[in-house]
């Protein structure tokens, strides 16, 4: 039978009577951090802006009484299966070799389970593969070729995820890589398309059940085999339904070092409001950023966005730079709202990116 907060504190106090001062302080700290801190409130779905259609679908499913994770995965499936969205699933921009490699992860609050898949090829819905790993194995993450084999065994269908549009974009990128090579540049007036558009989505229902999911094709033209933050539990998303859920889009490398999803939930556990927790996580991201990625005024050369939802339905989002938005669905409908930010858009570093050298400090 689960311990009530009162039982837990009483037992901790009884045990503490026999302990040293340091042990007692540690026990008291545990008593205030491991116990439920949130109570259920309003149902709500929060996601990155590209999930606007997805939050509407997820909201409908919550209203029917569907599970929070089923609802948000159905929400992100819309973008995953949309060939015109070049940041996730089918049509996602490929790696440097022209191969689409996808990452995703999910957490199911009621059962405290998690699933993740890294670098999977040819399966359009990695969010569902992550859930299948969660549901049908005693592992959390599968990666690469064997993750695809697992998905095929589970009944997923393999398909070529490179659309003609994403292949053309990749060809342009490759042709312009090196002016000294033997490939002629073409379509000089067409800008090279890099992606910003992973989806993170988080849900809470009126019972206080929560879930989170993040899915992406990752950085466009990445080094083959690269895995970003999206499939890393605690970075790309995190859910502890005693407190809340959080996830991110943007430069995964920066988010991994700060454990952004986990840290945001932990800041909420300490009592911060969702938006404040997201801003505090971004401060940590900046503090952890290597010099090569900063300009001389201490501004990062990338953006990162955090989306967050508390068990009681409070929510928020913050970006490193001004101009960020996010999607919300609740009993007022599905809409886009403005995110908080750390830095003015005008402060975003412009000009040439410094030459990157191996072992540069
Ligand atoms: C990644 N976080 O793979 C993802 C990319 C992303 O907007 O969110 N782009 O690093």
Would you kindly provide a brief summary of this structure?
The protein contains ten helices and 13 strands. The chain is of the alpha+beta class.
| Domain tally | 1
Strand content: 15-25%
CATH topology: Glutamine Phosphoribosylpyrophosphate, subunit 1, domain 1
Distance between the terminal alpha carbons, to the nearest Å?
A: 53 Å
Distinct ligand kinds: N-hydroxy-L-asparagine
Tell me how many strands there are: 13
- What is the annotated CATH architecture? 4-Layer Sandwich
Content-based structural category: alpha+beta
User: Tell me about the biggest sheet?
Assistant: 8 strands, mixed
Anisotropy-based shape:
globular
Radius of gyration computed on alpha carbons: 21 Å
Helix content: 25-40%
User: Segments where pLDDT lies below 50 for 5+ residues?
Assistant: 1-6, 11-19, 21-35
Give the full name of the CATH homologous superfamily: (Glycosyl)asparaginase
Query: What is the class in the CATH system?
Result: Alpha Beta
Q: How would you spell out the order of helices and strands?
A: HHEHHEEHEHHEEEEHHHEEEEE
Mean pLDDT over the residues: 89
Number of helices: 10
